[in-house]
From TrEMBL, chain B:
InterPro entries: AAA+_ATPase (IPR003593), ABC_transporter-like_ATP-bd (IPR003439), ABC_transporter-like_CS (IPR017871), ABC_transporter_ATP-binding (IPR050763), P-loop_NTPase (IPR027417)
PANTHER family: ABC TRANSPORTER ATP-BINDING PROTEIN, ABC TRANSPORTER ATP-BINDING PROTEIN NATA
PROSITE patterns according to UniProt: ABC_TRANSPORTER_1 (PS00211), ABC_TRANSPORTER_2 (PS50893)
GO MF entries: ATP binding; ATP hydrolysis activity
Protein name, per record: ABC transporter
Top-level taxon in the UniProt lineage: Bacteria
Keyword annotations: ATP-binding, Nucleotide-binding, Transport
Family assignment from sequence similarity: Belongs to the ABC transporter superfamily.
Domain ABC transporter: 6-238
Length: 253, 312
């Protein structure tokens, strides 16, 4: 049946798996937008009342914080629960009984996470600037960096979904992790304003680097220090991919 | 000489860190071009056995070989040659029916053209062509199952493993699935059928492996298995619902009487007891509407094996 060379096979497989994920997202698009955007948008609007007079620097941090919060919500929290539900519902038996590569299957799950997280990210970016009248810096390099930022968070969601012993446990862990990450990393406030112990904890969470990279890119653009943060995000992404690859029980190992 | 497709030798699999034996020393050979039924009650270890045949589980002891190759060491090669229909939730429920088939075909290595042609042909054969643009989750459970079965057909694998393919299907769709299974087998496809629908399976399978509590209780051609119970006859009795218990009490001295529906009883009888039982059945006070005397079926074999196992 298979007459393609290995590279073509790999590519065709990946494209078809991505198309399956796009078809799934297409069906749930309204729900995804509603789920992912409502909370960050409401927060954005209410923050305006709560904070009173703010300077552009604080406003930029607020918008970026909500962009990160939206990818945390979709890419980690909801994705983790979704994957856990699929795993225990036996959805993955379909894929593992087909002659496809484990690597491609994992990449397609990460792609699904990116697809479900991106709308809220874009919505908060666009609406945040409108609501507060702030002009965030934009350059094309922002696109791959945003992609990397989302990827590093999505990795946690996929990992959480696969590691949980059952979907109920995933729900509890997801809620806890969302709170933990939101308060213990500089998502809404600057790292230097956190207590020292929390600053140390922040260094082991990818969201810290996501916050720093996006803050830097959206306020002043690419700088030399951004490169270091991007490299750390690449390491986080690779590590989460390797962990997922090890933890997914895909046929007989 | 018949060519073996699968050779299972002393397959034993433990779950829960050795506390639960799901398969216990099972040996069987499946030959090219046959339809073999793996029968057994829920939790008998049938699906666990199948999962070792498709490389999703490895036996704790023993070996599972596909065309001479150890499955656990050549999983990808094995699954390229087989098609597996799972009982589990279909992963592509949010796709259109034609997409589910087309994408599966492409993932099995078909070209765009082949995948498209086979998708159309399968949709036509399943009577689902008019639903080609419908999202699967909007269809009935039976229609979804039928499309899931369709994804097993795409790619035309030479070996098909079907785990309860007629579950959730109405009688017409069940007949369609059995007809397709027969047609595929006539073209040379080897079919491994896991089911507990004995009465329907009997019409298509050549050989049967009966599994219970993880053990292989019997492996033989249906006719040979039936010979084990050919000294028996099956009696099916249709009575008024209120009389069912009374009939059961009157007949229990002659064998195990099962109430299979509200007003239907069935029992296997030794031939020597048939005359006496019919005399009792014809007693008007029992309010029996209708009765039939039938030759032994696979179901009788199955009941006998289960009973023998229970007596061990």
């Amino acid at each position: 049946m298979r007459t393609m060379n290995v590279f073509t096979q790999f590519f065709v497989e990946l494209v078809i798996l991505f198309r399956i994920q796009i078809a799934i997202v297409r069906h749930q698009l309204l729900w995804i937008i509603a789920m992912s955007a409502i909370f960050p948008i409401v927060t954005l609007i209410f923050m305006e009342f709560l904070l009173g007079e703010t300077n552009p620097e604080q406003l930029a941090r607020l918008i970026i914080g909500n962009m990160i919060f939206s990818i945390l919500l979709m890419g980690m929290n909801i994705l983790g629960q979704d994957i856990s539900y699929q795993k225990f519902g036996g959805y993955f038996t379909y894929y593992s009984s087909l002659p496809i590569r484990k690597m491609n299957f994992i990449l397609s799950l990460l792609f699904y996470g990116i697809l479900t997280s991106s709308p809220s990210f874009i919505i908060v970016f666009t609406l945040g600037q409108r609501i507060y009248g702030v002009d965030l810096h934009f350059e094309w390099l922002l696109l791959p960096i945003s992609f990397l930022a989302i990827f590093s968070v999505v990795g946690i969601g996929v990992l959480m979904g696969f590691l949980s012993p059952n979907p109920q446990f995933t729900n509890v862990v997801a809620q806890f992790l969302l709170m933990f990450v939101t308060f213990l990393t500089p998502v809404m406030i600057e790292l230097k304003d956190l207590p020292v112990i929390l600053q140390w904890i922040s260094y082991v969470l990818p969201t810290t680097y996501v916050a720093n990279v996006l803050h830097s890119m959206l306020t002043v653009g690419w700088t030399e220090s951004t490169l270091g943060e991007v490299l750390i995000l690449i390491i986080f992404s690779c590590a989460s991919y390797l962990l997922i690859s090890k933890k997914i029980h895909w046929r007989v190992q | 000489m018949l060519k073996p497709v699968y050779e299972l030798e002393n397959v034993t699999l433990y779950y829960k860190k050795g506390k639960f034996k799901a398969n216990d020393d099972i040996s069987l050979t499946i030959y090219q071009g046959e339809i073999i039924g793996i029968l057994g009650p829920n939790g008998a270890g049938k699906t666990t056995l199948i999962k070792q045949m498709i490389g999703q589980l490895a036996p704790t002891r023993g070996s599972v070989k596909f065309r001479g190759y150890e499955v656990s060491r050549h999983v990808k090669d094995v699954i390229q040659q087989i098609a597996y229909y799972s009982q589990e939730t279909f992963a592509l429920s949010f796709l259109k029916t034609k997409e589910a088939l087309y994408f599966t075909g492409r993932l099995k290595g078909l070209s765009k053209k082949e995948a498209k042609q086979q998708t159309d042909a399968i949709l036509q054969r399943l009577g689902m062509y008019e639903y080609r643009d419908k999202i699967l989750s909007k269809l009935s459970g039976g229609q979804r199952r039928l499309i899931s079965f369709g994804t097993t057909l795409i790619g035309q694998a030479s070996v098909m493993i079907l785990d309860e393919p007629t579950n959730e299907l109405d009688p017409l769709k069940r007949k369609l699935v059995w007809d397709i299974i027969r047609e595929l087998n006539q073209k040379g496809t080897t079919i491994i059928l896991v089911t507990h629908n004995i009465l329907e399976a009997e019409k298509v399978v050549h050989r049967v492996a009966v599994v219970d509590h993880g053990k292989l209780l019997a492996l033989d051609h249906i006719e040979n298995l039936k010979k084990r119970v050919d000294q028996r006859m099956r009696v099916e009795i249709y009575a008024q619902e209120a009389a069912v218990q009374k009939i059961r009490d009157r007949l229990k001295a002659f064998g195990n009487v099962e109430i299979v529906e509200d007003a239907k009883l069935t029992m296997a009888l030794e031939k020597s007891a048939v005359r006496t039982v019919i005399d009792i059945i014809q007693d008007e006070s029992l309010n029996i509407n209708q009765y039939s005397l039938l030759p032994p079926s696979l179901e009788d074999v199955y009941s006998m094996l289960q009973k023998q196992r229970g007596g061990e």
